[in-house]
Structures are given as structure tokens and as C-alpha cells.
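Transcription repressor NadR
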Amino acid sequence: MNSMERRKNIEDMLMKNNKPIKGSEIGEKLGVTRQVIVKDIAILRASGKNIIATPEGYLIPNENKQLIRKIIAVCHDSKDIKDELEVIIKFGGIVEDVVVEHPIYGEIKAMLMIKSMYDIDNFIKNIQNNKAEPLLILTGGIHLHTISSDNEDIMNKIIEELNQKNYLIDEEI
């Protein structure tokens, strides 16, 4: 299999799967190393393919479904991460990413694609197991999320509860 065929296979795998696939898993199936897959993914992205890298692996989002998207500004401590994420997913929302503004590097964005309790538990375990600090540490708790939902009603419920829990940053400050 040449590199063009391999990239086509990678794209097909990601299109057929609704969940992220780890680079090492793709490499195993195609008989190459994870590093080769990382390079192939970079080439596919450069050619315009919408491939997202999440902590759980690579995925191509299903864009057939029209989702309502909103960028929210929030502020809380590390101890409240799980609660914040649970508020969003319990109504059926998806936490697509997290963004912080760094004084040197500018905007730092990490794709999350958290949409279930399973995803939240894995995210929290990854932070703990890797002894990593969440990005909100860089900004005193202030960060942005792109969240999506199936409809405006769900989005409003998410926003309302985040506001009740004082996670949302007041726009009038």
C-alpha cells in the first residue's frame, strides 16, 4: 500500500467511525507506526480535510447534522471542572473545545469533544494520571468553551444552569 492509498484508508476509517480513533490503533490496522499516521493526518489536514485531534484520538465530525453552537466565557477552579462539564452534557450538549488567552502565546485551544459521562470520567482521569494541570490554571480560571446542542431549547437550559452555578462570566463587567 502506498502513502496515497494509506491516507485514503485513514480518511475512510475516520468517516465511518462516530468515535475518535487513536493514531496507534490506525497504525496497527494499516501496518505502520503511529508517527507515520501523525504525518499522514497532518497531510490530510493540510489538504483541507476536517480532522480533529482529541485526547481520545482522531475524528471527522459528522457535519450532516445542523447543531446550535455557542462560545461561552466561564470562570471556575480546577475542582469545578467535572461539575461544569456535567451541566453541559446532562442536557445533551457537547463541549467541543477549551480556549485560554496566554500573554506570550496568545490563544491556546484544545479540542475536547466531550459528550458523555464516560468522556468526562476519561478526561478527569487523564488529568490526574498524567499529573497535568488544566489550561484554566494559566488564566486564573477564565476560559472559553465552544458548546453545541441539537436545538436552541437545550442550549438555553445549559446556559441557564451554568449561570445559576456562577460559572458564566457576566457580560456586563
